[in-house]
Specification:
The protein is 37% helix and 23% strand. The chain has 206 residues and is α+β, with helices and mostly antiparallel strands. The strands form 3 sheets. A 5-stranded antiparallel beta sheet has the order 5-9-8-7-6. Strands 1-2 form a two-stranded antiparallel sheet. Pfam families: FAR1 (PF03101).
Amino acid sequence: MDVDERVDIAESSIGNELVEHGGELVEHGGDDMVVEPHEGMVFDSEDAAKIFYDEYARQIGFVMRVMSCRRSERDGRILARRLGCNKEGYCVSIRGKFGNVRKPRPSTREGCKAMIHVKFDKSGKWVITKFVKDHNHPLVVAPREARQTLDEKDKKIQELTAELRNKKRLCATYQEQLAAFVKIVEDHSEKLSKKVKKCCRKSKRI
């Protein structure tokens, strides 16, 4: 069976839904089964690739960083994107005119090269063209209690977003009703103005 044809179904912690990913399930840190990226893995969109790699990062024990992209010279569309570890690269020391002004903060960058490179394919899909697995620093998986807290925060954000969406929809309805009312008033004023002009003409004749 070809790699591109191999599909494993893994239970995703995002919405507790079953999500299909081309790739193999890898046991990591006990009960969790992690879907590992691989070259040739296909996604419907750039956002889908980001969501997948972000979830993979959370399960493995690092924080995803959205890195450089390549855009179309014709219309500015994103054609390729790099997603990596937040410890990628090194912090550049910035000195003032008279040397260091502030005490430098501890660096969070360690030159980690772990990343995936996703590219927009002519088929309309996004494909992983490069996967660097290894990190040069310890990986720290968040405890289940912390994950639950994050899930609760995500749920609250979703609730507030839905409420805001409803408020916007209600506001749009009020705006439509107000516009309709103003139109009625304008039409009525125009008719009244015509009647007043007509009365004035009649009074002049008298």
